[in-house]
Amino acid sequence: MRIIRDIPSEGAVTFALSGSVDEDTLTDLQQSILEASHSSQNIYIDLSEVTLLDRADARWLAHRDRKIVCINCPGYLSRWISS
User: Fold this and answer.
1) Kind and range of the H or E element at 77?
2) pLDDT value for 70
3) Which single residue of 4, 13, 20, 56 could bond 36 by disulfide (Cβ 3.0 to 4.6 Å)?
4) Domain ranges of the chain
5) pLDDT band for position 65 (cuts 50, 70, 90)
6) What b-and-e string marks burial along 19-49, b requiring 16 or more CB atoms within 10 Å of the CB?
7) Contact in structure between 2 and 19 (CB atoms under 8 Å)
8) Crossing angle, helix 75-82 and helix 55-62, to 10 degrees?
9) Any alpha helices (H) in 15-74, and if so which ranges?
10) CA-to-CA distance for 42 and 7, rounded, in angstroms?
């Protein structure tokens, strides 16, 4: 998995995930979000390049803080996240 941090405007940060996302990398994502939450009001997770998502990550995304918004979510992932 790769996490790319993008700050397109003041007050917002986007984390673009790509590749296979597994439980081991969830900690990295959570830490990155925690750090960004101190200085950013809006946090987005771009899922457009995710090819595989494990159950732990799907559960975390389904129950994430509502201030964190998933964007560009492929249909198969959005079904997992919303259920």
Assistant:
1) helix 75-82
2) 92
3) 13
4) 2-77
5) confident
6) eebeeebbeebeebbeebeeebeebbbbbee
7) yes
8) 70
9) 23-37, 55-62
10) 10
State which fold the 2-77 domain adopts. Transcription Regulator spoIIAA (3.30.750)
Q: In what order do the strands lie in the sheet with 68-71?
A: 2-6, 12-21, 42-53, 68-71
Is it the case that residue 72 has pLDDT exceeding 90? Answer: yes
Amino acid at 22: D
- Are 37 and 7 in contact by the 8 Å Cβ rule? The answer is no
pLDDT of residue 54: 86
Identity of the amino acid at 23: E
For the stretch 1-42, pLDDT in tens is 566 666 666 778 899 999 988 877 788 889 989 988 887 778
